[in-house]
Design goal:
The protein is α/β, with parallel strands linked by helices. It has 13 helices and 11 strands. Helix 8 packs across helix 13. It starts with 10 loop residues before the first strand and ends in a 5-residue tail after the last helix. The model has no long low-confidence stretch (mean pLDDT 94).
């Protein structure tokens, strides 16, 4: 199919999460602005459930013609294959990344009663008190859980994980001092930080977050190479023609460079993406391999 002839009818965008979350927010950034460039409408189809697997499966089995796309969190592509005993699709075989829409580092947040002011302090305190600290996360196999498990592996000590049903309840438990720390998403953590209920001591990206420049990174604190970035991606069935993939990337990248979009995204504590398809797929391969090691070491499994 030639690039000029695509699209000739509306495009369905499957979002593998319910309305209101980061994936839905990212999908709407594109679907509200891409139709003008593509000359066709885009319809969001929220298919939440099973940690993203329901929506992913629908997109993986759709016709590879550019008329069914997927917006999902990278963890559903890179972590789920290692966590679930079996899945009805194979992410790296059946889906291809078009671009990152939004990306963000996790924020390392602690309860203010913890005698810690920095990531370095946290490492020292955790090593001196193995097994005495606990962290909250929004569910088994979540990116936030895996980020702390990687941190534990890297510093060589024990911190106990406590699962909650979503990011909101995980933050409430930390505010209530049921646990002492969390590696949380900026949208769920920063309102509590700004309200003085939690203390932010760092971020998990390789470089400082442009949205949170005052916070140092875990890598800066003496763990070089530690780099955990979460992102929301635009995907297509894997045999979608290159011309269609490239057109969708080009137009999406233009949208993500708009000043109004940048302001909107940064206001959520996240960054706009726009990564080329080749780079986005390389990141998927690297992160899938990295998380497989962490999942195996931590013994995380969902049957």
């Amino acid at each position: 199919m030639a690039q000029q002839s695509y699209p000739v009818r509306p495009i369905r965008v499957v979002v593998s999460y319910p309305p209101g979350g980061a994936a839905d927010f990212s999908a709407r950034i594109l679907t509200q602005r891409l139709p003008a460039a593509l000359g066709q409408s885009m319809v969001i189809d929220n298919r939440g459930g099973a940690n993203g697997n329901i929506g992913n499966d629908i997109a993986a089995k759709a016709a590879a013609d550019g008329y069914t796309l997927l917006v999902t969190a990278e963890s559903t592509i890179t972590i789920n294959p290692s966590v679930y005993a079996s899945l009805p699709y194979v992410a790296m075989r059946d889906l291809t990344a078009i671009t990152q829409i939004t990306k963000y580092a996790n924020v390392v947040v602690i309860h203010p009663s913890l005698p810690v002011q920095s990531i370095k302090d946290l490492i020292t305190h955790a090593k001196a008190n193995p097994g005495k600290l606990s962290y909250s996360h929004p569910g088994v196999g979540s990116a936030q859980q895996l980020a702390v498990e990687l941190f534990k592996m890297t510093i060589g000590t024990q911190i106990t994980g406590v699962a909650y049903k979503g990011g909101g309840p995980a933050m409430v438990s930390l505010v209530g001092n049921e646990v002492q720390l969390s590696f949380a998403t900026p949208p769920s953590a920063m309102p509590h930080v700004k309200g003085g209920r939690l203390r932010a001591i760092g971020t998990t990206g390789e470089k400082r977050s442009p949205a949170l420049p005052d916070l140092g990174t875990v890598a800066e604190a003496g763990l070089p190479g530690f780099n955990v970035m979460a992102w929301i991606g635009l995907f297509a069935p894997s045999k979608t023609p290159d011309a269609i993939i490239n057109r969708l990337h080009t137009e999406s990248a233009k949208v993500l460079r708009l000043p109004e979009v940048k302001d909107l995204v940064m206001g959520m504590g996240t960054e706009p993406g726009g990564t080329p398809p080749k780079e986005a797929n390389a990141i998927v391969r690297e992160e899938t391999a990295m998380w497989a090691k962490v999942v195996k070491s931590a013994g995380i499994r969902i049957d």
